[in-house]
Amino acid sequence: MEYHKPVLLDKSVEALITDPNGTYVDVTFGGGGHAREILNHLGEHGKLIAFDQDPDAYQNEIKDDRFHLVMSNFRFLKNQLRFLGIKEIDGLLGDLGVSSFQFDTAERGFSTRFKGELDMRMNQNQTKSAKTVINEYEETDLARIFKEYGELRSARKWANKIVHERKTNPIETTTDLTNLFKNQIQENRRNKIFALLFQALRIEVNDELDALKELLVQSAEVIKPEGRLVVISYHSLEDRLVKRFIKTGLFEGEPERDMFGNWYAPFQPSQSKVITADEQEIDLNPRARSAKLRIGIRNGEEKKN
Ligand SMILES: C[S@@+](CC[C@H](N)C(=O)[O-])C[C@H]1O[C@@H](n2cnc3c(N)ncnc32)[C@H](O)[C@@H]1O
């Protein structure tokens, strides 16, 4: 099985590299598709540090003196770089979410298509899994997660049904969960709704939105002026955070303006429009359909938007 086909490969790598002998970080190594392409663009003195929190990604490690792989959540970006003696970098790439390998491995529990344990941990050393969330969370918390992370309209009803069911039968597998709701959803809408339910659980299990926010804030502290922040996201909750952060330096609210109406933000968007995959790429790799690529250029301290 192919581990993962990289998405928006050329556009993201071209946007990232400003100096072939600079230092770059790929915070989502996965199958190493982006990492290999970055190394192809780097000169002899270039460096690439990659992160992945999933020990399975280690089977793809690249043997190259310019490359170093760190097994860590990217929310520890600054500390890990400091540990390696790196204070600033020329660019950072994030290709968020799960890899095809994670998604297509039944026992990882990410996909509604297979029967597997309700796991969904990207980092298998972590204790909280989807089973914990489904079987131990309070009803109100389940409803909140389904609403906020899955944007599911029946969030409260679903949370109530889960809490009722688990009193007599623990919900242990992906199919235990989908069977609970199968008959309440029209067949043609099932895949979409289950995908949103699983998305909500995955975000909660891996604390994905907070990890992303921490990454973005720290990226501004390590990327040099003129360096690039390049992020590919696959759903609107992530894309919204990336878009707002690149535009304003904030995740919500309005930036504080000076008397001329300008504000300071660590990045400015390199394009006014989001970059997406073309039909040709989507035909070859359906996963590319939802991909959104955003690029931020690090401002100097005095530059205002
Ligand atoms: C979409 S895949 C990346 C694929 C990669 N660009 C390639 O070309 O093969 C996302 C990867 O990032 C990892 N990941 C997601 N969130 C992470 C986080 N917070 N910290 C570290 N790794 C993370 C996942 O384990 C997964 O392997």
Task: Explain this structure.
It is built from twelve helices and seven strands. By secondary structure, the protein is α/β, with parallel strands linked by helices. A seven-stranded mixed beta sheet has the order 3-2-1-4-5-7-6, with helices on both faces. Helix 2 (33-41) links the parallel strand 1 and strand 2 (47-52). Helix 6 packs across helix 7 and helix 6 (139-150) crosses helix 9 (187-206). The radius of gyration is 20 Å and the shape is globular. The model has no long low-confidence stretch (mean pLDDT 95). Residues 4, 6, 28, 30-34, 51-54, 57, 73-75, 95, 97-99, 122, 211 line the site of S-adenosylmethionine (SAM).
Short description:
By secondary structure, the chain is an alpha/beta fold.
Helix content: 40-55%
Strand order in the sheet with the most strands: 3-2-1-4-5-7-6
Named once each, the bound ligands are: S-adenosylmethionine
Terminal Cα separation, in Å? 46 Å
- Total strands: 7
**Order of helices and strands, N to C?**
HEHEEHEHHHHHHHEHEHE
Low-confidence stretches are none
Strand content: 5-15%
Helical region count?
Answer: 12
* Structural class by SSE content: alpha/beta
* Rg computed from alpha carbons, rounded to a whole number of angstroms: 20 Å
Described by strand count, sense and barrel closure, the largest sheet is: 7 strands, mixed
Whole-number average pLDDT? 95
Task: Give the overall silhouette.
Answer: globular
